[in-house]
Structures are given as C-alpha cells and as structure tokens.
C-alpha cells in the first residue's frame, strides 16, 4: 500500500549549505548522491512525497535529472529559494504538483516552508522546513528539515507517532 512522506531543504547543488549547516559531507556531489540514496531507500515508486521547499540550486537540466532519479509522486510547496523560479519552472523540472502556498493535509497538518504562527487554540500542527537545525518548542510545530532526520524523508506515520496531540479535558 502506498505511503506518504515529508521532507524539506535538501538544497541540492548548494555547496555552501555544507558549511552553513555543518552537514557531514566532503563535497556537494557526495551530499546530493547520499540524499538521493536515502530518499529512494524509504520512498517507493507508488508513494507520495510532500517536499516543503528549497529543493535545488542547480539549473533546470540538472534539477530535472535529480527529480527523475527520486522515487514517488512529488508535490513541491515552494520555499524561499524556489519562488524566484516560479511554479512552471518546477513543473518543467519534473514535480507532479507545485503549490505557491501552504496546504492543509488530513484536516490537521498545516504544510508550509517557513514555520507559521500557531496559537494554542489552532487545531493544526505546522509541518515545516526553512529553519534547518533549529527547532520550535511545543506541540504545534514539526521541523521536517533534512538535518533533523538523517537526510531522509519521514513517513506520515513517523510524524504522527512523534506529534503529541493535546486532549481537551
């Protein structure tokens, strides 16, 4: 049965991110290949992946090669480094769907690139990227950036297992 996965902020082709985020790679080529391998180790051809932004710093041809190497039906929510290229550029790069705006998934998970303000009365958990190695405290945010998850997409069940849903009492 197909599964659903979430990930963000691979920054394929971005050499400086290795130093900025203390990524454990000796080169950008090694980083890109390791992340492709980790993606395909967990995501099958029939699975869906929500990518929450900042996918690639490469040109269209090289980005298309990476997208085609990755398993699954791929949905991109544009990140701050993706927006300048526009929705059609990313569709041409091979994403199956591209959203310029956050999405609500399963009536409970608010998917966005940047963390969104969530007050304690909002009925959502914000699954987001953008802040790389940082974390927000509390039950209303879940940072899906690759630095937290060994550069591997997480399944929906892996996220729900980690999210503490507060019961009204």
Short description:
The protein has 169 residues and is α/β, with parallel strands linked by helices. 26% of the residues lie in helices and 19% in strands.
Structural commentary:
The chain is an alpha/beta fold and 169 residues long. The protein has one domain (4-162): Metallo-dependent phosphatases (Purple Acid Phosphatase, chain A, domain 2, 4-Layer Sandwich). The chain is 26% helix and 19% strand. It has five helices and nine strands. It has helices spanning 16-20, 28-42, 60-69, 86-92, 156-162; strands spanning 4-7, 48-51, 73-77, 97-99, 103-105, 109-112, 125-128, 141-143, 154-155. The strands form two sheets. A five-stranded mixed sheet has the order 4-3-2-1-9. A four-stranded mixed sheet has the order 5-6-7-8, with no helix packed on it. A hairpin with a 3-residue loop joins strand 5 (103-105) and strand 6. The mean pLDDT is 92. This is Phosphoesterase. InterPro entries: Metallo-depent_PP-like.
What topology emerges from the helices and strands here?
Elements: E1 4-7, H1 16-20, H2 28-42, E2 48-51, H3 60-69, E3 73-77, H4 86-92, E4 97-99, E5 103-105, E6 109-112, E7 125-128, E8 141-143, E9 154-155, H5 156-162
Parallel strand pairs: 1-2, 2-3, 3-4, 6-7, 7-8
Antiparallel strand pairs: 1-9, 5-6
Protein name: Phosphoesterase
Organism: Paenibacillus graminis
Helix share, percent: 25-40%
In CATH, the homologous superfamily goes by the name Metallo-dependent phosphatases
Strand content: 15-25%
* Helix and strand composition category: alpha/beta
Give the name of the CATH architecture. 4-Layer Sandwich
What's the overall geometry?
Answer: globular
Major sheet strand order = 4-3-2-1-9
Organism: Paenibacillus graminis
Protein name: Phosphoesterase
């Amino acid at each position: 049965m197909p599964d659903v996965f979430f990930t963000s902020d691979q920054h394929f082709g971005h050499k400086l991110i290795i130093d900025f985020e203390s990524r454990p790679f000796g080169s950008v080529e090694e980083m890109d290949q390791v992340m492709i391998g980790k993606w395909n180790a967990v995501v099958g051809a029939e699975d869906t992946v929500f990518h929450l932004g900042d996918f690639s710093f490469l040109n269209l041809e090289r980005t298309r090669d990476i997208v085609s190497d990755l398993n699954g039906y791929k949905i991109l929510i544009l990140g701050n480094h993706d927006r300048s290229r526009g929705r059609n550029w990313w569709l041409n790069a091979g994403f199956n769907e591209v959203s310029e705006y956050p999405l609500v998934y399963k009536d409970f998970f608010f998917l966005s690139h940047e963390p969104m303000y969530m007050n304690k009365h909002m009925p959502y958990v914000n699954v987001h990227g953008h802040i790389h190695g940082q974390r927000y405290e509390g039950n209303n945010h879940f940072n899906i950036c690759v630095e937290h998850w060994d550069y591997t997409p997480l399944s929906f069940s892996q996220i729900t297992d980690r999210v503490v849903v507060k019961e009204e009492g």
